[in-house]
Amino acid sequence: MIRLTKVELRRLLARRLTAAGLVGLFLITILLLVATYFEARPLSAAEQLQAQQQYEMAHKDWVDHSAENLRLCEADWAKQPDPKPKLEEMCTYPEPRPEDFGKPPTIFAEIMPELLQGSSYFLAFAAFLIGASFFGAEFSSGAIGNWLTFEPRRLRVYGSKLLAAATGFVPIAAVVLASILLGTFVIVTRLGDSSNTTGKVWGDLTAIGGRAVLTTALAAALGCIVGLLLRHTAAAIGVVMAYLVLAEGVFAAFLEKAQPWLIKLNFDAFVRHDAQYYVTECKTGADGSYLCDYVQKTLSFEHGAWYLAIFTVVLVLLGGWVFHRRDVN
Amino acid sequence: MSDVAISTRGLRKTYRTLRGRKVVAVQGLDLEVPAGGVHGFLGPNGSGKTTSIRMLLGLVRADAGTMTVFDQPVPAKLPEVVGRIGAIVESPKFFPAFTGRKNLELLAEAIGAPRTRVGEVLEQTSLGERGNDRFRSYSLGMKQRLAIAATLLKEPDLLIFDEPTNGLDPAGIREIRETMRGLGEQGKTVLVSSHILAEVEQVADTVSIIGHGRLLASGTVAEVIGGGTAPTVKVAVDNHEAATRILTAAGMTVRADGNYLLVEGAPDPADVTRRLAHQELYVSELVPVRADLESVFLELTEGEGL
């Protein structure tokens, strides 16, 4: 098994699609860092002057009119039918502050979790694509038949391919995420604010990165399985795209309460350690009115972890069973 | 060691078409391939040759029946004997974007063969100079040679070639034929499935003929040819009518064939000339018509309605 896995790893790394995927990941990493640089870049002198002028205009308007606006608003509030909204919710006119105008500084601890999560998406997608091609191409070229005349123990062959795809992506994902993490830190330290990056922040970011590496490895293995089941890379990609559009897009929009049972939210909950989602909750009030609220809910890390674990185990078992039983023609 | 390399008993395989219809590919095949030498495995297209080979190699699951390779039941014990089997099933299938050498290196590593063996088998199959070219750039003949090189990585005792000369030019066909013959002479068992009967007749020591997934005939080439048709002679004589009457009276079967008569059932060609000469009919030409594998094959398969 170890020997077979090594052979499969060598094959994975020798494939042109893997090389193209690595170049793609490298380019995306560079683009992300460039985007971070532009995001963190402070305003130019002209932009700062413009922001200052806007602040001064807003402040003058506030000084001139806020008292009158408040009085008019309170009068309007008094005319509102019951149940009235709270007065401070309806009639608040805070004094403008200079920091409300122009661009706030980029804070490393605030942007990095989002950036790592975003990176985990494209890493998982690339791993899935390469994994699907890694196994699917063997069926479309017919090479799997030749391979099995050298090693007929199918479950070993299956296991070695999954292991090779998964372990092959661990260092790749680790290098990409580490580059993004450290590159962003350097950029934000120079242009923004990384002063509050405590040991706990680094620990949390490392944990997110570690989980993103794990999901990338799982995506590569699952890509292999889908490639095996469909016997074609293009079919595997088609299935994923159809799932994303139909299940994660259309279905999730119509049936919001089903979101905890879809892959993406569980993926987010696992990588980010809890994830927020929104559902519309409607009820009929005592006076017969029908009211709807947009309510934020949290999907726990544990839910995401169990979901992904069960999903992976089921798919691995299904793939193993199919590969063990299927005729190779 | 047993003198039988491959044995199947009651081997059966059915497929289901996309419309759900069942198609019987192999039905109760009893096959025996002796160890050592070249065994031809003949049958028309769709007779179940490739499916039978795939079942032997564990690529396709049999519905019923038993198979042994070197006395080991397969597919259960296939891992134990697979190191002794080299196989090319239909057209050679390798990773098209890798070089021939890379493909062989991966296979060698998978079975624990030393990497130096790759260079040796490439040289053995005259691919040494093209080993670093991509597989997809190879001609069909080169692909076939690479497949043979792959089988030789294991130094196998049994080689299975499924339609090995398909699409090859005459030089390629000759090369493959010589390779098979050479392996057979080295004491290895070569099972070659083909429908090019003249090819098989030239290299095979023994043959099995199948049709509709069943065994129709089996034995040495001489046995199969001899058992399939009666000896025939082609006779040129002036008076066809009189000659036909004389030979028919002697219990022979006579048919006209242009300017000749085809005479079957003569124990010895001399009998024909003697009987005709007695009646002052003189033979100007007499050619023994040797039955060949093709005629036996056609006779057997036509009898099965194939």
UniProtKB/TrEMBL annotation, chain A:
Residues spanning the signal sequence: none
GO CC entries: plasma membrane
Protein keywords: Membrane, Transmembrane, Transmembrane helix
Transmembrane annotation, as ranges: 20-38, 121-150, 162-188, 208-230, 237-255, 304-323
PANTHER family for the chain: INTEGRAL MEMBRANE PROTEIN-RELATED (PTHR37305), MEMBRANE PROTEIN (PTHR37305:SF1)
Organism taxonomic ancestry: Bacteria, Bacillati, Actinomycetota, Actinomycetes, Propionibacteriales
Protein name (record): ABC transporter permease
GO molecular function: ABC-type transporter activity
Domain of life: Bacteria
From TrEMBL, chain B:
Domain annotation ABC transporter: ranges: 6-237
Listed InterPro entries: AAA+_ATPase (IPR003593), ABC_transporter-like_ATP-bd (IPR003439), ABC_transporter-like_CS (IPR017871), P-loop_NTPase (IPR027417)
Key words, A-Z: ATP-binding, Nucleotide-binding, Transport
Pfam families from the UniProt entry: ABC_tran
Gene Ontology MF annotations: ATP binding; ATP hydrolysis activity
Entry similarity comment: Belongs to the ABC transporter superfamily.
Protein name: ATP-binding cassette domain-containing protein
Organism: Kribbella sindirgiensis
